[in-house]
Design goal:
The chain has one helix at 155-163, and strands at 2-8, 17-21, 30-34, 40-46, 52-59, 64-69, 78-82, 86-90, 102-104, 108-112, 120-124, 131-137, 140-151, 171-174, 183-186, 195-200, 203-210, 213-222, 227-233, 242-247, 251-257. It is built from one helix and 21 strands.
Length: 260
Amino acid sequence: MTSSVQSELLRFVQLNDVVPCDFDQDGVIDLLALNHRVSTGYGFEGVGNGLFYAGSEFDLPFRPAAAACIGDPLDNNLVLVSTEGSIALFHPLVSSDPPMRIVKSPMQILALGGDEFSNTIAVVSDEFDVAEAYQLTGGGLTLLGEYEVDSASTIEEWYETVLGWTEAEEAIPLPPVQHRRRIRAADLNCDGIPDVVTLESRQLVCHLSGGGEPLQTTLRVPFGIDPVALKVCDVDGNGLVDVLLLGSAGTLESVLFDAL
């Protein structure tokens, strides 16, 4: 069963991405919302039920074109990619100045070798002809190398290659073109097998495992906004991964999972 709640984030700022974190360090998931036109991050405090309220603002190292959480969202390790092609590891903490490391890199962030909160990511250019893989090591990002990219034709093909990706691979697997910026891998039904979440015609499409095998069943959940960003995280603390949809008008829809 699922339920859905909406939070009004910013009325007069057009947001283009949202990232789960815990900037107030209370053990409850918060959000950092971003606009690629400004170098300010807008914090929204979570209350543990899918609703979020305005919190702190953060000075970012640049105007972010893409962002993602790397590792556990409660550890506050966020990767930001600039509109000019730089990457920074950013730690949004209310109580201290965030350290950061900036290096040259391309534009889109994909998780590799596991679920959405893997410690290994790929940063891919908009042209999708080259990618750089990074790993969270200690308090910083380690560059694993530069790789070619290989676009999958189906979700199944992408799933098999991205979850088994290691540093020894020759290419970074990209999702199918129609899902490239709207696909996430996470264990929704808590059976130890990653599932896949995509968007399709005002529906959240969950490709779930069954009988010990991945991608066996499909769950479709309608939503009410036009999303520009899709993220997954357990926002209500019940042990099940939820889905966050950011609308271009500043509305956030939290799709909460009670059981699958």
